[in-house]
């Protein structure tokens, strides 16, 4: 049986995390620089929208996720970042749906 699209996506996320974590230092955690590279390389459209390429956005996201304040992002902390990204993507999707609906029904 082949993996579903969601299963394949989950595997790709895990693989991506470990690929970037292995770049420097502890191979089980992401540094701030590794996180920046992961986000810019793998979600470029998202990072390009709404000023997310600004250094402070990634730094603030890193600091909020770093629950134990060790200046590293473990996989569990990375899941927090993924959650924030999915929330933002969902909000963008809903805004686009609403704008499309409003345009179709002359609500603007």
**Radius of gyration, taken over Cα atoms and rounded to an integer in Å:** 17 Å
Largest sheet: none
Q: Could you say which structural class the secondary elements and strand pairing correspond to?
A: mainly alpha
Instruction: Estimate the helix proportion, in percent.
Output: 55-70%
**Terminal residue distance:** 48 Å
State the CATH architecture.
Answer: Orthogonal Bundle
Low-confidence stretches: none
Per CATH, the superfamily is: EF-hand
Average of the residue pLDDT scores: 88
Instruction: Provide the CATH topology.
Output: Recoverin, domain 1
Q: How many structural domains are formed by the residues?
A: 1
Number of separate strands: 0
User: Strand percentage, roughly?
Assistant: under 5%
GO cellular component, one term: cytoplasm
Organism: Otolemur garnettii (Small-eared galago)
InterPro entries: EF-hand-dom_pair, EF_Hand_1_Ca_BS, EF_hand_dom, S-100_dom, S100_Ca-bd_sub
Pfam family, one: EF-hand_5
Annotate the secondary structure layout.
Elements: H1 5-21, H2 32-42, H3 44-48, H4 55-65, H5 75-104
Any overview of this molecule?
The chain contains five helices and no strands. With 108 residues, it is an all-alpha fold. Helix 1 packs antiparallel against helix 2 (32-42). The protein has a single domain (5-106), classed as Orthogonal Bundle (Recoverin, domain 1), CATH 1.10.238. The model has no long low-confidence stretch (mean pLDDT 88).
Keywords for this entry:
globular, 108 residues, mainly alpha, Recoverin, domain 1
In short:
This is EF-hand domain-containing protein. This protein is 69% helix and 0% strand.
